[in-house]
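<given_protein>
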Amino acid sequence: MTSHVTAIPPAPSSVAVEHFAKRLSLETDCADVFESMKQSEPDFVLLDVRGPKAYARSHIPGAINLPHGKIDERRMAVWPQETVFVVYCAGPHCNGGDRGALRLAKLGRPVKLMLGGMTGWADEGFAYEGDLDGSNTASSS
């Protein structure tokens, strides 16, 4: 008997390898970003592509706020062309990360999207910075 899972057979392994390798070249996750940010000098720049108010409420330590609508050649000129960028927004309900990644890619910049955004970061229990209630300068979820 066929289940809902196997009603459509899985792709051949060669197709799956190509698919998942491509996804991993475009995306990263919160745990990998967290571990990498522990390095004295991470090999990427972490961009919070939400607006300044959202960034002030909470953001990942070490992230730079650059709203996706403000990503342009002039602003990106401060980094070498080969700099890898990791972008994130609020979470899976937000397409700001995709918009930021698209802008960077159109500028010829290497980029990955951090899956989950701030929602994923909080779900993992990682510390964040911000002023959630107007009285704190650093918080932890």
Q: What stands out?
A: The longest strand covers residues 45-48. Helices lie at 13-26, 30-37, 52-57, 73-76, 96-106, 117-124.
